[in-house]
Amino acid sequence: MTYPDHRVQPPGSPVFVDRWESDEDFAVHPKGSQPKRTLVCPAGETAQYLIPNHSYIFKTTKKSWQAQQVWSEVIAYRIGILAGIDVPPSFIAVDEANGTTGVLMEFSLDILRKPSRPGLSMPPTT
Question: Which domain of life is it from (predicted)?
């Protein structure tokens, strides 16, 4: 999987996800060390680094002392760009409805389910 456009979130502009719809196919992730849910980017989204109608995982932390962990995904994405390694795009996001800050990670399985980027197609079945 490649991310040739290296979409980067501008400083001081978190993604506000409180009005994003849950992805019914992958709405809640019951396992894992941190709470997460899958959301769909609205069709009218204007931020150039997000893909409208595409699924993203919104991952938060359980305890306040873990809040810095959300940055690890964003930092890994930025380092991946510099190193030429494919890493899912990750952005800082806020759910104003419940006051949580987290990381919004592009959901890579979405590409297999419903391609939304030009030039992508379903992989051949065997």
Answer: Bacteria
87 Cβ partners below 8 Å, 6+ apart? 3, 76, 77, 79, 80, 81
Query: In this model, does residue 88 exceed pLDDT 90?
Result: no
Using alpha carbons only, how large is the chain's radius of gyration in Å?
Answer: 14
For 66, what's the count of Cα atoms within 13 Å in the CB-facing half-sphere?
Answer: 11
Task: Name residue, tokens 């001081």.
Answer: 12
DSSP character at residue 64: G
Global pTM value? 0.75
**Domain locations along the chain:** 15-113
Q: Are 77 and 87 in contact (CB under 8 A)?
A: yes
- Rounded-to-integer distance, Cα 29 and Cα 95, Å: 17
